[in-house]
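Quick one before lunch.
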Amino acid sequence: MGRNPVTWLGSPTFPTAARTALADVQLRGNLAHATGTIRTKREAAVGELPDWERLRRAGEAIKDDVLSNLDVYLTRLEAAVTARGGVVHWARDAAEANEIVLGLVRAAGATEVVKVKSMATAEIGLNEALEAGGVSAIETDLAELIVQLGEDRPSHILVPAIHRNRSEIRDIFRATMPGASPSLSDRPAELAEAARAHLRRKFLSAQVAISGANFAVADTGSVVVVESEGNGRMCLTLPRTLITVMGLEKVVPSWRDLEVFLQLLPRSSTAERMNPYTSVWSGVTPGDGPREFHLVLLDNGRTATLADRVGRQALRCIRCSACLNVCPVYERTGGQAYGSVYPGPIGAILTPQLGAGTDDPGTASLLRSLPFASSLCGACYEVCPVRIDIPEVLVHLRGRVVAEKPAYAPEAVAMAAASWVMVSPRRFRFAQRLLGPLRLLARRGRVRRLPWPASLWTDSRDVPAPPRETFSAWWRRNRG
Amino acid sequence: MASSREVVLGRIRAALSDRPTAPEVPRDYDQTRALGDVIGLFAERAADYRALVRRVRWDDLPAEIESSLRARGATRLVAPADLPAVWRVPGVVWSLDAPAYPLPVRTLDRSDGVLTACAVAIAETGTIVLDAGEAQGRRVVTLVPDYHLCVVREDQVVGTVPEALASLEPTRPLTFISGPSATSDIELDRVEGVHGPRHLEVLIAG
Ligand code: SF4
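Model of the iron/sulfur cluster complex:
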């Protein structure tokens, strides 16, 4: 083994990756623009509901109930799905889930599958496993397509290509999309049109589709996928065989519980009153949609997370990504620095827990650094629709790292100090003032490296040199 | 060797050995809200998401359908077989779909659009819900064509999400539709028109 699929193989620790990301001015600009836009919109969408706080508390309580009785609800879900003609599979880990899916695809006689964006399948590295088994997986989400065509990695839960702006996307499409017009513009509508044309043929001929699930109702066996583009509907409706991979914690007890989550999720994630499409299906409906339905229930570190009394609240997460959009550290480093499919504040608490069993030293060191990728400012907790106390879990996990590794943990100290400076322009200016006399270290107006502890900051960022009036400017001002 | 099912369930039970107690779920959030004119609100919110919305008189429905289709230039339409016969206006070639005699996907793809009814509509979010029931057809017929004309009866409009869910049968295949297909994937701005119908028109009839 050795490979922990929750993280990307060979990812550096967070501070190292953050340094690379911070040097990328384009990336920071794209991120700041996108997260700034969504923050403002989210506030408006949330402000419209007078009972928002009560919905959050209900969401929290429903999820806590799920976690406290997870075995009961999962067996109930299994019975309901089976009764309606679906087949339920249980997977202990990524390798087993991938094996199950590959076996099902082969049994269906397919060599190509269409996929709708799913965190669970990204987490287990399903595409790579299928590829190795001779099956090509086509991502059909616009953002996933951008990532796949650009041979890139995702950087956001909801908008995996958030680090790309429209002209970069145009360039990727022009270079890599078969049949894309060389005169393709960077108008978002035209880019979307190009993706539509590109994928349409695939949808209409696909035999097998693979999806994730946002929720699954134990009482009725109803599975829910929330999406925008309609690629989800295509995958869930057109192919003969549908395979859904779902983390254990996605089950909810009853249909009624969705009245809470279908309000919390769209407003928290895309800042909309409702996302364009939500699909619900239960098993197989004769004459309508797939003739075969398989539901794969995935553990992969979830039960180990459940065993941690403080850390288990991370399993309440509904993957809305609101915590990413408000996080000052995420906004500056981007998602890829977290080395995992789960970036941002939720990644900082979920990845180390899901991946805890790793025996790869590189991965272990990344996982140890993640709980320090935060300034503990608390913004994530405030926006979280299921009230996960992310700072509490971060502190708890930091304690675990220190307990495991009492020796000096440089990545931890570095990140904690750097993020303290990073979160506030005032602190940053303060740090600069402190370091004013050191401006002689600057070359061509940029300070490349400052002595410790400021090196924690300059190592991660090109710092503008403290302004020093040139002699000629002083002369002009005083004499001219 | 124990099956994976037994292993996972065993792990869950071991993880819960501290016997956390399930809290009572507080259901004090709003089931309904004083939203005033829900029909007007539904019209406004559906239009917010770039659906074309018109309020029409029930008795004029066939004529209104005809004028929508003419404005759109749609002459080859798909409809579920149980669509009211008077809605299948003249001047249009109608292809009827039913589970017993499904239209090929190619036919759906080459059509100019689809006409259906709906199960319920949600004012607060501007959402229509299809449940594959009367005059709504299989899911695929409202997915592949590029234009969806949907008739909402005024008495099908409810105020809130909880009201709508309470009226639905969860084991039917359900599709919640809020505006035409869209994406927020480019710089987090909503752009209409990806894989689902790029044009959604709603006739609210009462
Ligand atoms: S932790 Fe909360 S805010 Fe972050 S993605 Fe999960 S549900 Fe959303």
